[in-house]
Hints:
The chain is α+β, with helices and mostly antiparallel strands.
Amino acid sequence: xxxxxxxxxxxxxxxxxxxxxxxxxxxxxxxxxxxxxxxxxxxxxxxxxxxxxxxxxxxxxxxxxxxxxxxxxxxxxxxxxxxxxxxxxxxxxxxxxxxxxxxxxxxxxxxxxxxxxxxxxxxxxxxxxxxxxxxxxxxxxxxxxxxxxxxxxxxxxxxxxxxxxxxxxxxxxxxxxxxxxxxxxxxxxxxxxxxxxxxxxxxx
Length: 204
């Protein structure tokens, strides 16, 4: 039987099926393209809320090749972030990881327990020791804390010596890109560090 338009009914049904199938395939292709684009585009780095960057790495300090030199303090080569900072006497706390134990320290703003400082490197770093120096005021003391590495590991830290000496934390060498020191318990109205040193090798 021939229709009014001279098209066999089976041919018309076939054309409709082909058109619907083609439309469905186009829609699926668009969805897959969007999903692929989202998967490929780099995601922005996440920073904890309240993060304050107090120092970028010094361009004058260059990393060394693994095995070329003995491990050294690589803290000055890190980007330093803190939970907060109390700016006093014109100091921002940027000197807390410059390799010199002086009065250019980091003091958290209105924080004691929970305050933190984080060092991050652009390249992998092989580290095995971290030295922590308490604030010079004997009334402000860190009583306990936690080192948190980006590989998921943690190390509990005992009270920092109030005399200004370093609390030396050693561990089997590990390769990381960042380390955070979180103050879990503190004594006195202020909490922070006079200096933090990270002993290791920053790879090229």
